[in-house]
Design goal:
The chain contains four helices and nine strands. It is an alpha+beta fold. The chain has one domain. Strand 8 and strand 9 form a beta hairpin.
Amino acid sequence: MKLNKISIFFVVFFIGCLGNDQTESTPTSLTFFDLKGFFQTEIKQLKNVRNISKITEVNGQKETLKLDSIDFEIDLKIFSDADINKPSWQDKYSVDSLINEDGQISKLTYGAQSQKLKIRNLEIDYVDGKVSQISIIKSSSSAISEVSEKLIYKPNSGYNIEREQDITLSGKNQFRVEVKFERY
């Protein structure tokens, strides 16, 4: 008899441990501003933007292009890749916010608390409760190189990407992209 009760207990226990195979999709709460989600939405909304001006500059050599369309998913990937919502980074960034006289948030600032983090600073400016500008500063260094990037995105007008790298064997290189557009 004892063997049966123990066997039944283990069978019930293991069935309970298996759980339900159907997974419910519960929204994940994010610690910081949802940068990746913001840019996914932006990319969808920018599909119909036309009359785009794109200026690229590499080590002082400029090129200006007038475009009818652009693949914003590729161009804005550098912004969405700067998302700091990684579980291991929850306590790695300080958060500061400014509230305007109407009680609405006007600026969120996230600052890296460790020199090891590539994304050094993330700032989100708001006007009337909507994102008006996102600024990102990235920096990394190794024994042979130092790289710094400054990214600025303005939802209604365009974005700038500035990158400077200093590689021991090849020297300094500067890269800049400026994209301007108007939403309809």
